[in-house]
Amino acid sequence: MSSQHAARARALTTSEAVLWRTESPGLRLPILVMVSLDATPDRDRLCQALEHAARTHPELRSHLAEGPLAVGRPRWTPVPDLDVRRHLRVIRHPKPDDVEQVLDLTRSLAETPFDPARPLWECLLLQGPGAGGSVLVFRVHHALADGRLIVRMLDTLCTDDDGSGAEQPRLRVVPPPCDTGERLLGSVPLLPVFAGAVLDGARRVACATARRLLDPLAPLPDALRAVPAAVRSGAAALMLPAPHSPALKGRSTQRELRIVDLPRTSLREAGRLVGGSTQDAFLTGVLGGLHHYHQAVGTAWPSVPMAVAAALPDGSGHRNGGNRFTGVRLAGPAGEPDPLRRLRAVHHAVRAARSGPLIDPDRLGPFSVLLAAAPGPAVRVLARQLTASDVHCTYVPGPGDRVRLAGVGVTAIRPFAPAVNCGFSVAMCSYDKTCAIGVNIDTEAVQHPDLLHSALVTGLREMTGLVDD
Q1: Which of 458, 449, 469, 248 lies closest to 342 in space, CA to CA?
Q2: Do the Cβ atoms of 153 and 145 come closer than 8 Å?
Q3: How many Å apart are CA 176 and CA 262, to the nearest integer?
Q4: Per the CB 3.0–4.6 Å rule, which of 172, 198, 256, 307 could disulfide with 441?
Q5: Could you give the CA distance from residue 43 to residue 40 in angstroms, rounded to a whole number?
């Protein structure tokens, strides 16, 4: 008789709900990770690794449940009899080591919507002829995981069971706790729920205000104290830090993918030249690429709105756990021609931006509850204001040493973040001695993808050149 592994249904965090409802036919939000392997893994061993990861991360074996009309907080609902083989596709590819061909195939995954009736992830194994290498493409919806959680999931895949064939625990679904508030916002599929929540929130604030006026010495309720800070934070987050570049106009679902590899140590040492970090050098290199791109297309532009993902500490205290995203927007000095001066400017801009309001839907006080329950059209309007930028950047440190996945060696890990309301996104993951950078380009915004890629290579190598020369 098999043992059982307990998993609870849970409501999505506000961040997860926003990411889910931001998606539309005109915007897809998959995170793609391309893992290059030095051999082709045994399919049973790979499925065993996927099963191990799904037991460790419950969201991988949960589907997203919405009520009719998509109003109220959605829930992750466990799938007791998940078959990971249904999430793994194996394709024989003549040249899995040909990066350009693999990128072309991977591009279609960035444009394809997920089936919400199934867990929001899949794997594509590109298997070459003979005993050569292979590529595993891991695709997951951004509502299910952010970059840091993706790395943890990959780490779990790289510490799979030893292939002994021992029976693994089965998932035992535990009903969600009987929490009136959660059930109100998560399971009642009626349009009046959202309106009722708004009215109830207004009633609570009005009553608290009246009590305060009648008794000025009474303590201020937590919900009321949180309102001014939430309003200030939200208003500041809605302000665009710089005008959009005319060279990056237009938005679509059409994508092109490109990659850049840099030495990890050189990028870290470049950041230290100004007392900064690897991320500072990375962002500066991207802005250098935009500087060269603007020069090539004949457009002089001093600064661009840049969104930068900011990791929350593990002890953030969110009771549901799961995926939480936050970030800052800053005016990126794309017009600065000198790499070192640009690096100093970016270092100071990032420090200043992080000391200000964060784009964090989970920290908007009582408005977070309302935002998580809001219908998709309302969320998409707000999300466009919060995320609109010319470029989105994210950096997630990966394994410092070589690892193995399903018994074969991992030679490279290349991430691609969704291009959300921006001209292109740039994601970087460090692994072993390399920083691998994935560029996800909206071809409506970027009319010359190859030219942008070349400019980014130049800008990023300017950073490593500061310490390698």
Answers
A1: 458
A2: yes
A3: 46
A4: 256
A5: 9
User: Residues 6 or more apart from 153 whose CB is under 8 A from it?
Assistant: 53, 57, 60, 138, 140, 145
pLDDT of residue 1: 34
Residues 265, 433 contacting (CB under 8 angstroms):
yes
The full DSSP string for 412-434 is EEEEE----SSSEEEEEEEETTE
Q: Residues 202, 227: contact at Cβ < 8 Å?
A: no
DSSP assignment of 258-271 equals: EEEEEEHHHHHHHH
Q: What is the DSSP letter of 27?
A: B
Using the 8-state DSSP alphabet, how is residue 129 labeled? S
Exposed, middle or buried, 118 (CB in 10 Å: 0-12/13-18/19+)? middle
Q: Cα–Cα distance between 74 and 11 in angstroms, integer?
A: 6
> Which residue carries 């309003």 as its tokens?
231
Asked if residue 35 lies in contact with residue 96, where contact means CB atoms within 8 angstroms, the answer is no
Q: Which of 56-65, 232-241, 256-265, 322-331 has the highest mean pLDDT?
A: 256-265
At 387 the pLDDT is 73
CA 430 to CA 158: how far, in whole Å? 16
For residue 5, how far is the Cα from the chain centroid? 28
Q: In angstroms, rounded to a whole number, what is the distance separating the alpha carbons of residues 312 and 12?
A: 17
Q: How far is residue 352's CA from residue 16's CA, in Å, rounded to a whole number? A: 27
Strands 4-8 and 170-174: parallel
Which residue shows structure tokens 């690892």? 403
Written as six digits, the tokens of 128 are 């070459």
Q: Taking 80 as the threshold, does the pLDDT of residue 361 lie above it?
A: no
How close are the terminal C-alpha atoms of the chain, in Å? 64
Residue 224 token pair: 């009321």
In this prediction, residue 104 carries a pLDDT of 84
Per DSSP, 24 falls in state: B
Look-up: residue for tokens 């292939």?
Answer: 163
Q: 10 Å Cβ neighbour count for 462?
A: 22
Which DSSP state fits 361?
Answer: G
